[in-house]
Amino acid sequence: MSAASTVDPWTFETLHVRIDAGVLFAEISSPPMNLLGPELVRDLVSMIRRAEANAACSVLVFTSADPDYFISHVDLTRVAEYRAEAAKLTGEASIASLFRHISASRLVTIAQIGGRVRGAGSELVLACDMRFAARETAIFGQIEPAFGLIPGGGAVQYLVRVMGRARALEVLLSAEDYDAELAERYGWINRALPAHTLEEFVTRLARRIAAFPAAGRAAVKDRVNAISLASPEDFRHDSDLFGLGVRGSESQRRTADAFDRGLQTRDGEMALAAVLGELGRTQKR
What we know:
4-stranded mixed β-sheet; globular
């Protein structure tokens, strides 16, 4: 037997995966701060493809190995690369299409959130069928408007549907941080739970769902998606707008300013909302 044939197909660089009672638990581990870069997108694509083809997998639960960052946001230095990895699943160089694929998948997807989840991190959890967050640690934000951009991974489509027009505009235009209790009140997540009970709650729910007939799960998801999931064209349009905007001079100036202030560094993003509020000002911190 060759060495290649002995490799565990569920082994990934940025994901720690285990399957238990029909539930696939995928722990995100992409140091130093769980940026959504090409390696993580590559592993997500590979894992999703394998899970969808495996009848033993019914429910997919996302967690994070990093207590401070669930997914921080996309790696702004590697946009073309992570888009190319997404295309390997959907045929489109867009994480918006990847996230919509997750929503439309036969897998029931649950995000178990602790730490910061901003930008595309927020869009990934919004793509999941259910979201549960640690009350003490989870922080949510859509940071793109601070750079003069529209979110490109589906946040507009998801947020308007889950929280309504006015609250979606507040979230999208403010680029502020929202704690788990406010996120729950707004509909961003299903529930905010005490951190010490979160894992037990999600695991019990995931196993319960996985134990029910597959036909019922599929029928429910198909009908709910028919009512609530935006079209591929809507996701594609937002992705195109992001791709166009990120190349613009204003966005590039603000991005450079943000990097000077600690963007994409672990310590610099602990209070990212404050940094974003300073962008474009001549006096730096």
